[in-house]
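Handout, section 4.2: multi-component inputs.
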Amino acid sequence: MDLADKAVGLLLSVISLSVFTYYTFWVIILPFVDTDHFVHKYFLPQEYAILIPVFALAALLCFLCMFVGYVMLKSKKKKA
Amino acid sequence: MKHILKILALLVAISAFWIGLLQASVIPESYTWLLPLYFIVSLGCYGVLMVGVGLMQFPTCPQEALLLHQDILEARDFLKNKGVDVGSN
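Output:
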């Protein structure tokens, strides 16, 4: 049982570290590299570096509002 | 009320710092526009990393689990002798 916990923890840390290094590379280092370097192939166009986090934040906000609304509706129905 | 004021003051200070950076043009402007978003993403990453590290280091105390199990059995027997049935197995 604790091995599964350790595996999940390790997976989470690896995902978070890789996302952080990818994003840092994308936003900070890539604008300094010449445009015909091969490493540009591995990264999406720079507009996506802004679109993806903003879209994720908006989706999270929507999900939170929907959840709060759902819980409020359920509690009101139970009281009535 | 005071806690919200503290948080708002912190937010105003950070925005003032960011606008100051924009005006001073020490860093190329495209960087300054992306800086808040970068910090939000890195904060989220840091949170996930802390959760993962905490999960990995969580102590399970197997001896205490065994002792607890024995305590549960003992309590169940004691209560059964007194007439209360709490067995759920």
